Amino acid sequence: MTTKRANNVTLLIVLVTVVAVMTAAMPDQFLRLGNLQNMMRNLPEYALLAFGIMIAMTIGGIDLSGVSVLSLSGVVAAMILSHHQEIPLPTVVTMILAILAALGTAALCGLINGLIISLASVPAIIATLGTNGLYYGLAIGITKGSHLGGFPLAYIRIANNDFLGIPIPFWVFIAVALLLGLLLDKTALGFQMKMLGASPVVARFSGTKNRAVLLKSFVIISLLAGASAVLLTSKVATMRPNYGQDYLLLAVLLSILGGTNPDGGFSSVLGVFLAILALQVLATGSTFLGFTPFFRNFLYGLLLLVVMVIHHYRDTGAWTILKESVFTRTEKSG
Amino acid sequence: MKRPKTFINRVLHRHETYLTLIIILFSVVTANVAPAFLTAGNILSLLRGGAGLGLLSLAFFVALISGGIDISFPAIAISAQYITVRTMLAIDVNSLVFAFVLASAIGIVYGLINAFLITRFKLPALIVTLGTSNLYHGGLLQFLGTESVNVGGLPTAFSDFGRMSLFQISTEQGTLGISLFFVIFVIAIVLTWFILRHTMLGRGIYAIGGDEEAARRAGFNVSRIQYFIYAYVGFLSAIMGIIHVSMIQYANPTNIVGTILLRVIAAVILGGTSISGGRGTVTGTLLGFVLIVLIDRHLIMLGVPAEWTDFFVGIVIVLGVLATHIRLRLERKRLGELVVERAH
Questions:
Q1: Is residue B106 part of a domain?
Q2: Choosing a second label site near B331 at 20 to 30 A (CA), which of A1, A165, B26, B254?
Q3: Which of B121, B138, B343 sits opposite A60 (nearest CB)?
C-alpha cells in the first residue's frame, strides 16, 4: 500500500514541478487566465475516458470501445440537436432530450459489452475490439462520415461558459472524480469490482454476483464516454464520427500513469486525477514549444512504455535492490 | 464406437464446417444478385487485392493463439514500407530484393522491441503494442515527414512487382494471371501452417496460449517463443507493407493505419481463434479471411451503401466472437470445469 500512496506523491511532485517549469519558462503565456481556462475546458473530455479505462482495468479487463461509444452517442445527440428548430419543443427540453439520448445510447452500448463479456465468457479485449468496430461503423453509417452542426446556442454554452471562473466541463470532471472516488472506496460495488479484478474465482466464492458487477461496470464505463460526448459536442459545436478517436492511447496512458494495475484489483481515482492534470500541463507546454501532434503521440507512446517499465521494477522490488546497490557502492567509495 | 458416426460428429462440431457453409451461401446469393461475382477477372482480382490482408491475418492469428495480442502491426507495416521507399530513393537503389530485405529487417526489429517489452518486463501485450504502435507511427511521421511518394517518384521495382503474375492468359478484357502477391501469401500460409503443426516451436505457441505457466514447467522456453512470435508478426507485416505499395503504386505514411485493423481482427476471430484457450487453426483463419474479403468487396454488389460496410463487418465480428466463445463455454461446462464470469 505504501508504494501505491508513494505513486500519488510522485505524481504530485511531477505536477508541481511541471507547472513551476512552465511558469518559469513562459511566465506571460502559461499562467494567463485564458490559458488555464483553456486547459480546464479541454481536459475533461478525455479525462472521463481515462476514468473509464481505469474502471475497466480495475475489474481486470479493458474497454477499447470507449472512443467509439463517444462517437456514436455524440452522433445521436447531434442528430437531435441539429434538428432542434423542427422539433416542436422548447429548446431546453430538446437539449435535455439530446443529453439523455446520448447517455442512453452509451448505457446501451455498455450493456451490450457487458452482456457479451459475461454471458459468452468473451475476454474484454476481444469483445470491445469487436464492438468498437460495430459502434463506430454505426456512427459512420448514420452520418455517412460527414459532420452535423447547427446546434442551439444554449447547448454550445454548456461547455463554453464558466462558473466561478472555472469552465463548466471542469466542474463536471471534478464531480465525476468525486463520485468515482466514493464508488470505488466507499461502496460495496466498488469493493466487489476490485475483488473481481484481483481474482474472479475468489470473488465468486465470496458470494459476489460477478455477472451483475461486470454489467454495472461496463455500463458505468460507457456512461462516462457518453458524458464525454456531451462535453465534446457542446465544446466544438459540431459532431463528426472521428472526433475523439485519438483518445484511446491517451486514456490508457493516463490510467496507467495514475497507478492503475492493468491486471486488475487496484486503482486510485486521485492518482488518475493527478496524472490527468500533469499530462494536460505537459501537452499545453508542448503546444507552446511547437511540437507536432505526431511528436506528441510519439512521446505519449514512449511515456506509457517507460512508466510501465518503472512500475515493473517497483513491483518486483528490483528498484530497491538497485537503490541499495548504488547506496553501498557510494558508501564503499566514500 | 462406429467410425462413420464419429466422423460426421467431428465434422459437425468443427467451426470450419459452419464457416465453409456460410461462405458458400454468401457466394451463391452474391452470384445470383451480381453475375460479375463469378468471373475469372473478379476472382483473380480478389486474390491479388486480398493478399495483404491475408498476411496480416496470419500474423495476428499467431500472436492470438499464444494468448498474446499485437495491435501494432499496421504501424509496423506502414513504417517498413515508407522507410524502405525513402531509403531506396535516398541512396538511389531500385531493387526488389533490397526492398524486401530492408523492410523485413525493420519489421523484425520492431517486432523484437515489442517482444522485449512484453517478455522482459512481463507487461500486458495489448498495452505494450498500443504504446509501440504510437511510437513507431508517430516517430515515422515526425522524423521522416508526411510527404507521400506517388507513381512517378516511386522506384520502378515496385510497379514491376505489382504487374508480375503466374500463368498469364490474354483475353478480351486484358491479361489475366495469378498475381505474385497471392503466391507470396500462399508461401506464408504453408510456412505458418508448417511451423504451427510440425515444429516444437509451434507446439510451444499453442502451449503458451493454453497456460503459460504450464508451458514453462513443461520445459518450453516461453520468452524465446514470444520473441519468435512478435518478430514473425513484424516480418509478415513488413512484407504486407511492400505488397501494399506495389499494389497501389503510392507510398503515403498515413495509409494502412486505422483502416485495416478491424478487418484483420474480424478475419481471425471469425476463424474461431480464441485468445483465452490457445486454440485456432490456420484453416479457420483462412476461411475467416475469405469471408471478410467477400463481405468487404461485395456488400456494395448486394446493394448495401458503402458507408454501412464497417457496421456490417462489426456485426459479423460480434456474431463470430459470440459463436466461438459460447461453444467454448459449453464445452468447458460439459467437461465439468468451473466457469466463472470475468473480464479477462
A1: yes
A2: B26
A3: B343
